[in-house]
Amino acid sequence: MKKTKEIERYLKYQKKLRALNLVKEGLKVMDVCDIFKISKTTFYNWKNKYEKEGKKGLERKIRSYETYGNRISDETISLILKLRKEHNLGTWRIKWYLERYHGIEVSESSVYRTLKRNSIKPLHRSITRRAMVTKRYEKKTPGHHVQIDVKFLIFYNDKGEKIRRFQYTAIDDCTRIRALKVYDRHTQVNAIKFLDYVVEKFPFRINTIQTDNGHEFQSRFHWHVQDCGMYHRYIKPGKPQHNGKVERSNLTDKREFYQLLDYKDDVDLKKKLNDWEQFYNFDRPHGAFGGKTPYETLKTKLKN
């Protein structure tokens, strides 16, 4: 990449020199401008620089970062690098965190350039500009549809022994407010307990519960949903994308919670997951809502 830019600068330099030489050889300025597709102003700028500085005046001067008057401070740079290192955040989320928790306003492009200048590789899964403008289908009323799913967790203790846990996740289609619980077993009994927790936790009435066709969501769970005055809807078999919001939120858990969790035998996973649930709902800027949290989105929905 660096070599390509050097070649481009060299070709640009040769172009300027050739244009000036053609005029010296007797060609009219207007004709030279037509040949090289430049304006007269550009040509005379080249000519003036050449007369003042010689050939060096035709070379492109690369400004160092320190010469920019509006460059971001060293403290902000340190915060950007810290957020990437400790939380593995993408450029948009770093921008939102700086605004929300540090009162620092920087553009997403400035965050990107800072990371690039410090040789930090981009996260391929980070929020893109296209994702920011994409309009995704969602329910208009909080509680209209709540998606529930189970995430299978595998940890290893100090002895290398496998530990299995099961995270039950519920997410409101409209506001992205979530409820999370972790259990030792993957059963209908735990699914029913989790549903009761969701009903108690969510600050609005739930109309429909949507799940896949897993054994934990069969008859006992199904009738419990209806006994609670809600509808239970199964997605089509083999179509996890129909529960796309809860599936995507599970991926967020993996990247922003479990990936940073140093799991040991004595870790209080239930407490840590509860803290993560609170943070997700009340403090974490959400890409789908332009940096607002799920509960801020709920307030906006209720006002409207």
Percent of residues in beta strands: 5-15%
How many helices? The count is 12
Strand and helix order: HHHHHHHEEEHEHEHHH
Q: What's the story with the biggest beta sheet?
A: 5 strands, mixed
Structural Rg: 29 Å
Could you explain the architecture of this structure?
The chain is of the alpha/beta class and 304 residues long. It is 48% helix and 12% strand. The protein has 12 helices and 5 strands. The protein has helices at 2-24, 29-36, 40-53, 74-87, 91-102, 108-117, 129-133, 188-201, 219-227, 244-256, 269-282, 294-303, and strands spanning 145-156, 162-172, 178-183, 208-211, 231-234. Strand 2 and strand 3 form a beta hairpin. Helix 4 (74-87) packs across helix 5 (91-102) and helix 8 runs parallel beside helix 9. The protein is elongated, with a radius of gyration of 29 Å. The chain starts with a helix and ends with a helix.
Which terms would index this structure?
elongated; alpha/beta; 5 strands
How do the helices and strands line up, and which of them pair or pack?
Elements: H1 2-24, H2 29-36, H3 40-53, H4 74-87, H5 91-102, H6 108-117, H7 129-133, E1 145-156, E2 162-172, E3 178-183, H8 188-201, E4 208-211, H9 219-227, E5 231-234, H10 244-256, H11 269-282, H12 294-303
Parallel strand pairs: 1-4, 4-5
Antiparallel strand pairs: 1-2, 2-3
Helix pairs in contact: 1-2, 4-5, 5-6, 8-9
